[in-house]
UniProtKB/TrEMBL annotation:
It comes from Anaerococcus hydrogenalis DSM 7454. This is Putative cytidine deaminase. The keyword Iron does not apply. Belongs to the cytidine and deoxycytidylate deaminase family. Residues 1-97 form the CMP/dCMP-type deaminase domain. The lineage of its organism: Bacteria, Bacillati, Bacillota, Tissierellia, Tissierellales. SUPFAM superfamilies: Cytidine deaminase-like (SSF53927). One of its GO terms (molecular function) is zinc ion binding. One of its GO terms (cellular component) is cytosol.
Amino acid sequence: MTKKGNIYKGVNIENAAYSVTLCAERSALSSAISAGDKEIGTIIITGDSDMTYPCGVCRQFMAEFLDSDSKIVIANSTEDYKIYGLRDILPYNFSKKDLEEK
């Protein structure tokens, strides 16, 4: 969900060549970015395992587009979830944006 309240959904897009697989997190963020909505307020990540956390590529991708006040929600259900900030899940990212905030 962007800070404007717009919601974008994403899905995993699997591929036999694993490196070109697109995770749901990057799919949703790419949809928002393509629509010109670059201020992400909250990203909710769900999966079929106990607390599905984003992969390293998705964490770095989020570092480029989330702000320090953006929320990352890892959820099994509406009652079972954890809320993180970007620095909680990726404290040492490669984002120039992050370096400027320090």
